[in-house]
Amino acid sequence: MDSNTSASSPEATSSSTGSVVIAWLFVGIPLLWGVSQTFIKALALFK
Amino acid sequence: MANDSLLDRSRTIAGPGYNRWLVPPAALAVHLAIGQAYAFSVFKKPLGALISGNPDAPAPTDWTPGQLGVIFSIAIVLLGLSAAVFGKWLERVGPRKAMLASALCFGGGFFIAALGVHLHNIWLVYFGYGFVGGIGLGIGYISPVSTLIKWFPDRKGVATGMAIMGFGGGAMIGSPLAVTLMDHFKAAGTGSLGVAATFLAMGLIYLLFMQFGVWTIRVPADDWKPAGYTPPTDHNALITTGNVTADNAIKTPQFWLLWVVLCMNVTAGIGVLETASPLIQETFSDAALGTGRGVTAAAAAGFVGLLSLFNLLGRFFWSSASDKLGRKTTYAIYFGLGILLYALVPTLGAGAQLTLFVVVSCIILTMYGGGFATIPAYLSDLFGKLQVGAIHGRLLTAWSTAGVLGPVIVNYLHTNAKSNGLTGAAAYQSVFYTMAGLLVVGLIANFLVRPVAEQYFEKETAKKVAA
Fold this sequence. Notes:
The structure holds 2 protein chains of 2 kinds. Chain A is mostly helical. Chain A is 70% helix and 0% strand. In chain B, α10 (253-283) packs parallel to α13. The two termini of chain B are 42 Å apart. Classes of the chains: A mainly alpha, B mainly alpha. Chain B: Keywords: Membrane, Transmembrane, Transmembrane helix.
């Protein structure tokens, strides 16, 4: 996962990676919840 | 500067160390919220029983399904109009201010609609969720697009695909969230079957959730490019390094050809979405498959859910694939393969081929979603990144048009077929053949797309076609 400049300091890149993980979790968890709810509903088609 | 507030574009320019992979989740925070619009139908039954209190037995003074259908129509029309009107403003003020405006309109729309439900005044609901919320939809939909393209010149399709995938995912969150909240508030005895309180809660939840996008988004510095990135040097006249303004873009035949491309793709997709539940139940009934083996209402709801999942997956898959395949080739696949599959659906129905019918429908829906997600990158390839958000906004009027056109065509053809005594799969035959015909129009429009003429490009950034 690349950051915006090749000249970024290692500290900045490291802290940025942590922020990226948190940011993706923030949007990923609700999205996965919604997808799982839809998937459960979709299972009715195969019963 | 006196007006140098935290919301100004100048204050959102990324500093050293900012990781560009923070931008897609910022965009997703907005799209996951506004994607709720496609789950609005979950409110239809309770909204239609506010007086009687019984969704299965509405009172004469309750709002009718026709009146309630107008709410979503206003929202989707306003989405296209506001995206077209506010696109240039967005390019000027930057994504942060635009995302905040979107959050305020979308959340505020829920609050006004809640008041409308409380007072049982449908005009307030039209104004709130439809008009104000619809403006929030339009501004929110386009707000991260040009920023993503600027951060990911090497993977435009991947980046915009991730964001626009969020719009598809938003409905998957919005629907169960609304049901959970309505059950909770109904049990708590808040009145109006819990709808007004749910509108208030959802307005607040989305307003706060979208703040993550507002305060995380950054734009790159003008001279920024990804480490090790060099613009493509292969011969591809459909990818420019020059720039066309939004005002000039609409004077080009390419803009209107892509307008037709998007409109045809969306209209055809709506044909499937609109008919999905009755189509599968009527085509694969007990009469067709044998007693007790027909598709039930619950299974049909599962089918609709499955289509939503493939709509979402297609947004990311096809848009990402377009980075390798090229946009024109990708749309040629949507239309070429689409024509075959749409024409095949009635045959599969008549032959009681349920599994194949489901598989084909799911593939069709991936291309419906892919059509939405690939268009920003196509526009950026043809017109450059300078005002791609504004150009995209103007192109979204094709979506609004399709949002009206699709259901009208489907309902007319289906009603006509039924009045001619056709039933089951036969009643939908004309719908699918007509949709295949629309895809032929889209295929031709896509085929006619050529590089934009030199005269439309900005002088200071004289067009430099990838040499």
